[in-house]
Design goal:
Layout: H1 6-9, H2 12-19, H3 35-42, E1 46-51, H4 53-60, H5 67-74, E2 79-83, H6 87-91, H7 93-104, E3 108-109, E4 113-116, E5 122-126, H8 130-143, H9 148-151, E6 161-166, E7 171-174, E8 177-179, H10 186-197, E9 201-206, E10 216-220, H11 224-234, E11 240-243, E12 250-252, E13 281-283, H12 287-293, E14 302-309, H13 317-328, E15 332-337, E16 348-355, E17 361-368, H14 369-383
Parallel strand pairs: 1-2, 2-3, 6-9, 6-11, 9-10, 11-14, 14-15
Antiparallel strand pairs: 4-5, 7-8, 12-13, 15-16, 16-17
The protein binds cytidine-5'-triphosphate.
The site of cytidine-5'-triphosphate has 13 residues, from helix 12 and strand 14.
C-alpha cells in the first residue's frame, strides 16, 4: 500500500498493473470492509521498503494518519522496515532514536546499504537489493513474530516432519574424479525452504553445497549409498519424503585409492602403457523404489518422486512421466523436462504433477522453483 508520498514516484495504476492486485491507498476507500483493521490483522508479514525518515517517525510515535500507519498499529505479525534516505537524514539523532524505538518493539529494521543515493551523493542510506530484502522476509516468516502465541510453527504443514533430498550425487572414481550429473539442487532447496515456511520440521539430505535455508536441518552427503543411508536414518516419524535429488543409477565398481594416471603402467618392454582404462559400473540402489516397497499402511509417509525426462522418439516428456509413475508407484510424481539448457541450474522450471490413482495432471510453469515447490506442497498437503 503506497503512501501519498510514494504515489509521487509511482502511480497507483502502475502498481495495480504490475502486481495484478488491487492497490489500497487510503483509509476512506471500501469503508464497509474496514480495510485499516482487516489488512493488518490478516497479514503474515508487513514490509515497509523503502521506509522514509517520515514514515519511521510516524511509526515510532504510533501515529495513524494514513492507511499504512493504521496497518502498522493493527498488525500482530512480523514487521520488516528498510530505511532508505540521504545519509544526513539517516544519521540524524531523531531518525536513529526512532529506529531504536521500533527495534525495541520487535520491528526488524534492515540496515541500509551504502552507495549512490537519489541525487549525486553517495553513502549509507541506500535501499538494499531486493534479493537481500526478500531473504530477510523469508527468515522472518520462518521465525514467526516471536510473540508467545506465534512461537509455535504456523502454516498448513505445522506439526509435519518432512525429508527432502536435493542435488546430484557424486560417485567417486579416485580421490580427484567422480561421475556426476547436472543437477544444481535448487528445486530441492526450494521445496525444503517452502516446507519450513509452511510450518514443517524439515530435514534436507543434500548432495549440493548450497546455503542452508532458514529453519532447515541439512544432512550433507555425496554418494547415492550415503544418501540412501541418510534418508533411512531420518525416516522415523516422517510424514513426507520428497526425492528431488538426481541420484546416480550407477557407480564405478571400484574406487582407486590413488589418482588414476594417464600413463598408468609400464609394459614388460619398458614402454609406457597408453591403453585407455575401462570403468566398469555397478547399479546403485533405487532409494525411491525402496521407500515405496517399505510402505506399510496409513502411517507410511507420502512419497514424492521426481522424473527427469527429455522426451524422445518413443514418447513425450509427459508419456515417459506417466510410465514412470506406473513403474515407481510413488504417491506423487513431479515430471520435469531436462537438458543441458533447460531446468538444470536455472531458477525456473516447468513441471507436470501426477498423482497415483488419477489421470489428472497439474501443469505448473514456466515458473520459479519456489512457485513449483509451493504447488507440490499444495498437492501433498491435500493428500496428508
Ligand atoms: N531415484 C532414486 N534412486 C536412484 C535413482 C533415482 O531414488 N538410484 C529417484 C529420484 O530421486 C527421482 C526418481 O527416482 O525421484 C526418478 O529418477 P529418474 O532418474 O528420473 O528415474 P530412473 O528410475 O533413474 O529412470 P531413468 O533414468 O531410466 O529415466
Amino acid at each position: 500500500m503506497p503512501t501519498a508520498s510514494a504515489l509521487h514516484f509511482v502511480g497507483e495504476a502502475t502498481w495495480a498493473a504490475l502486481s495484478g492486485k488491487p492497490v489500497h491507498t487510503d483509509v476512506w476507500s471500501d469503508i464497509t470492509e474496514v480495510p485499516h483493521v482487516r489488512i493488518g490483522r490478516e497479514a503474515d508479514l508487513v514490509v515497509v521498503a523503502p521506509a522514509t525518515a517520515d514514515l519511521l517517525a510516524r511509526a515510532a510515535t504510533g501515529q495513524a494518519d494514513d492507511l499504512l500507519t493504521n496497518v502498522l498499529l493493527t498488525a500482530r505479525c512480523p514487521v520488516v522496515m528498510a530505511p532508505a534516505m540521504h545519509t544526513e537524514m539517516y544519521e540524524h539523532p531523531a531518525t536513529q532514536a526512532n529506529i531504536a524505538t521500533l527495534s525495541e518493539r520487535g520491528v526488524h529494521v534492515v540496515p541500509p546499504a551504502s552507495g549512490r543515493l537519489t541525487g549525486r551523493d553517495s553513502g549509507p542510506g541506500r535501499l538494499p537489493e531486493p534479493e537481500e530484502l526478500f531473504e530477510v522476509c523469508r527468515r522472518e516468516l520462518a521465525r514467526g513474530s516471536g510473540t508467545p502465541s506465534a512461537a509455535a510453527p504456523r502454516g498448513p504443514l505445522a506439526g509435519r516432519r518432512v525429508v527432502v533430498t536435493a542435488g546430484g550425487t557424486r560417485e567417486p572414481l579416485d580421490p580427484v574424479r567422480f561421475l556426476g550429473n547436472r543437477s544444481s539442487g535448487k528445486q530441492g532447496y526450494a521445496l525444503a525452504r517452502t516446507a519450513a515456511e509452511r510450518g514443517a520440521e524439515v530435514v534436507l539430505v543434500s548432495a549440493a553445497g548450497l546455503e542452508a535455508p532458514a529453519g532447515v536441518r541439512v544432512v550433507p552427503v555425496e554418494t547415492a549409498l550415503e544418501m540412501e543411508a541418510a534418508v533411512r536414518a531420518e525416516l522415523a516419524d516422517a510424514d513426507v519424503v520428497v526425492m528431488a535429488a538426481a541420484v546416480a543409477d550407477f557407480r564405478p565398481a571400484t574406487y582407486t585409492e590413488h589418482k588414476i594416471k594417464k600413463t598408468h603402467a609400464v609394459g614388460a618392454d619398458g614402454a609406457p602403457d597408453e591403453s585407455v582404462p575401462a570403468v566398469p559400473l555397478v547399479r546403485n540402489p533405487d532409494i525411491l523404489a525402496g521407500l515405496v516397497a517399505a510402505r506399510a499402511g496409513a502411517s507410511s509417509p507420502v512419497v514424492v518422486g521426481f522424473a527427469a525426462e527429455t522426451g524422445d522418439a518413443s514418447g513425450s516428456v509427459l508419456e515417459h512421466g506417466r510410465a514412470k509413475l506406473a513403474r515407481k508407484s510413488c504417491d506423487v510424481l513431479v515430471v520435469n523436462e531436462v537438458g543441458a539448457d533447460v531446468t538444470f541450474g536455472k531458477d525456473e522450471n516447468t513441471v507436470h504433477v501426477l498423482r497415483r490413482g488419477t489421470d489428472a495432471v497439474l501443469d505448473v510453469g514456466p515458473a520459479s522453483k519456489d512457485v513449483v515447490a509451493g504447488a507440490v506442497w499444495d498437492v501433498v498437503t491435500d493428500l496428508l
